[in-house]
Amino acid sequence: MPGPQVTPKLKRKHEGEDAQRKKVRMQGKSNAGPATNGAGVKQSSPKPDQTGAKKSKSAQKEKDLSAPPIAAETEDLSPEASDTAEQSGKPKTSSKRSRSRKEKEPKAEEGASQKEIVAKVESCSTDTPADNQTAATGEVQAVSKKHKKKKQKSRNTASWSVSAPSGGWFLPQDAVFTPNEKFLITANAKALLIYSTETSLLASTLPAGSGIISAYALSATNPDHVYISSNAGFIILWDWQKAQKVGRWDIGSNVRQMVSVRQPDPTSNQDLVFCYEAGDRHIINVHALRTKAHDSETELKQILKSKTTILNLQVLLQGKIVIVTCANSVLIGKRAKLHKTALQDFEYVWREFKTPKRVTACDAYVRVSETISKSKDPLLNPRDDLDLAIGSEDGVIYLFEDIVPAFEKAEKSHKDGKKTNVELDALRPKRLHWHREAVATLKWSKDGNYLISGGNETVLVIWQLSTGKQQHLPHLTAAIESVVVSPSGSSYVVSLANNSILVLSTTELAAKTNIVGIQSRRIDLEQLPHKNSNDFPVHVYSQIPMVVDPKTGTQVIFSTPSSQPKHQAGAKPLPEPYMQTFDFAAQRPISRQALTRNLATDSNIAPDGGKILEPNVTLLQISGDGQWLASVDEWIPQREDMSYLEEGIPEFNEEERTFRREVYLKIWRWSEKDSQWMLETRIDAPHFLEDAGANARVLDLVSDPVRPGFATVGEDRMVRIWRPTTRTRDGVVVRGVKGGARRDLVSWSLDQAVEFSRRVSSTSSTISLSSRLSFSKDASVLAVGVTWHAKDDTDVVHLIDTTTGTVRRTISELHTTGLSSLAMLGRHLIIVGERIIVWDIVADELVYSVAVGFVGVDGDRRFGLTRLAVNDDNGTFAVSSPRFEEPPKDQWFKKVSSRVSIFEPQHPQPIWTSNVPAMILSLAATKVGRGYVSLDSSSSIRVITPQATAFQLPTPPREITPTRLRVLEGDEKDVEKIGGSIATLFGDEDLIDVGENDKPVVRAEQLQEIFEVAPSHALPPVKDLFNAVVDLYARKPRDGAVGALV
């Protein structure tokens, strides 16, 4: 293992650290200026030249480098405006303002030739006065003015757009079957979703419009109509077959649940909608919603007002019986005046009984006897045989048979005869107990002979009430959240806590339909920061590992939890042991695979009753060819499990936990036959703290863009590069069958290890707080950015030569804190912390530095909420920053969104900016096209792409016979490295035949000046080298030459 490396001096000279720090400080001061021009440069009135040309040129360069914060120059778009712009596909900023801004923006010096760069670097030394440095720089800028004008035209001026969100979590509400059971209706926050039960595919989508969908219900009179309510206070009636709106009503309240029944009037064929409306009060209203096609008017009747939150609402016999479930009580309401069918005559008599444990599920069933069924109108019969089943938080199911007479008997036992609420034991229920945790859902079968229940055990339990036997369907991969019985009773709809829905046959319990959504981290409303408060769980918004699969270019791979029950959301950070693949072009999931050991279907209860947590996948990367996948998972005992070592010293207890940390680097290989990733190599403790004897955390993982290989950086201040090697035995390659094909067996091992600073023990205060890696496009340079806990260690970026494994340059002039992201784009290094810093590696100087523009969040936690992605195809990079805005007066939670900005490394002003109405948790560049793909806190995927422009065919060149230049012996190899064959040097140039004696002679020293100006990892782009070689061969050899290469 190599020891600490000394940073070697580069062949070229660069500006001293003091001068670079001065530039950064000047940019910070210029950002606070009161007046700026279109390019963000501080305006000043013209004054006579007092100090000469040197001072003038120095001031000019300071202006060119300065840039204001993003928030001061970008248009603030609300989420509503962002959604409108997304649907229309129009740019979100004025075209005139955009054009004027681009005309005034300063241009970078990337267009300068290689000789000019060398001259500039040599003119700036560490002992040169500042005035001389800036004067020399100004001269170079004047020389390269022509190159800047050429680059001015090539700037990306295309507009960008954000696609409509795809995915999202299904609402925690029972799915609804259509009467013919051919379609299943469910919803997410933004749209109503209609799925085909035969194909499991999405058949139709009905957008919610303004607001978020809070409830939905199928019409009882017309199976083609469905009611949708939103938190904006609207109820919309849709014809889901024709995808047309039928009616819209503003009821001015937030509907949490709704049930549609047929109006009991025999002469009427209209709906009554029972709604639970939450707010300052908990109310159940009955709405008679009417459109212009109806003869009657819209009516409203309040039937219940409660002080406690209502958990469930069930309506039976066209509103004759209403069951309301609260946290510790159940209310049964029965309509008194059955012969009166007008809505305003609805009067209910309510009976309530208390429960000793919290109620988690409830369902009722009405048994119609033969004598009642033979009567003219069963709804008018006052005798009801009502059976009730409730599930409690301790896993017990209470079964009440014919509960109404039991209620009446309990009421008569009271002397006053007026008390209508009794205790649960007074009703003498039966007890059914199998679940070890809370009963999440409970439903009666169609014939009333069975009870179906489910919970966190991932087991569907079917209770046969006549015999007391149980039937189990285990291993459903996630906790069961709800069960629905189809209208015919032939199917069960099971909603799981991993955002999937199964349709099972009741006879064989075989899956007939499988509907899967995006299963990323679930963030509920209760986890959002409260109004007038900055306290919120930061871990909820931490970055989700996500990569784009280069094999297809349209599939993203990201980590997911095994199960996310809604009643456990936000309690603790859930580990993410699974990986899901989602096709954002087809808008459908592809696969789901476990990357670590998981306990989703096993008994994962510790002896003390706590839950055993799975390992957490913290990092994920894929190779450039898409054949190799690397993952890092970490497991550490819970603090509760370390109580037996409690000695009253918190620091000691935390140190003991770190000693028991498990960290694994796993390398997976793609199997075409099985269409899944197969584990090839597992590396235990890829980073280790030798002084402390504990496993070190892996802080970042990147993939080699050129050949198979991955690089990691850990808390031990080591960078390790891992590469595959073919297994051999006695010099013979070992072959085997893996993934259904016979191939050479491969093992991954350590290829290089670079120590960029001293190693410390696990108890030291200088353990790395954050560290990021990034390869250059040709994999010749590996950049390492480090932020340390210790105040005496400044944030630095090390540039490592991957060929020799040495640190070639240490950039300590950044003056940034809280490094959150790092990336290399061409010759530029992008650093994101409290500011966005662009550093030119070739010129070894700062290009610009702008503020990120955080809103509503401060402190160190804001740095973990920014995202960065670079796209080499169009030379842009995208940055997202968090925004926590104060909500309106009638809302309790803050408004959470992200500001996304697209930059070019040459210009400090973003070329496009927009708001996303959710917190972006992952951001990556697409492999097909020139855009970006994001995964946000609503489990939705959005694609950000430049809008298509008119395609223009290139003008064909004149037919000419090019004259091939003579290349000196031994130089053909160098020419091919740059541009391929020598013939490519003449592709688009007009040549005139020249004589044999007019060919230019190129000496080896001249080529050496071009290619040996810097180390291989620090050479300028190929385009600049190409232009330098062409200029060398195309120069005019002597006066009177017949022709020259222009």
TrEMBL record:
GO terms for cellular component: small-subunit processome. One of its GO terms (biological process) is positive regulation of rRNA processing. Its main location: nucleus. Residues 102-119 have a biased composition (Basic and acidic residues). Residues 1-160 are annotated as: Disordered. One of its GO terms (molecular function) is RNA binding. Residues 144-154 have a biased composition (Basic residues). It is found in: Nucleus, Nucleolus. SMART domains: WD40. InterPro entries: WD40/YVTN_repeat-like_dom_sf, WD40_repeat_dom_sf, WD40_rpt, WDR75. The keyword Repeat applies. Transmembrane segments: none annotated. WD repeats lie at residues 432-473. Keywords: Nucleus, Repeat, Ribosome biogenesis, rRNA processing, Transcription, WD repeat. Residues 123-136 have a biased composition (Polar residues). This is WD40 repeat-like protein. It comes from Amniculicola lignicola CBS 123094.
